[in-house]
User: What shape does this take?
Amino acid sequence: MMSLRGYYSALKLFTLELLDDIGVFNDLALGVVAFIIGSEMRLSILRKMGKGIITIIFSESLGAFLFVASGVCLYFSCK
Assistant: This one.
């Protein structure tokens, strides 16, 4: 719940107790979404698209790493 506490101080719409209680619903919603996504996946479809999926996963991971690393480098004035 650490991420929601920052919103509490900025917007002052919810109490900390309410945010702690809402965490159960957040976990439930994420579980339902994960279940729906998992039920749609079929191994035969993944095997057909295997090389493309692997390429996308690695390129997104590398892109995110480079973006964050360059941001950290600019923030701390890396040379």
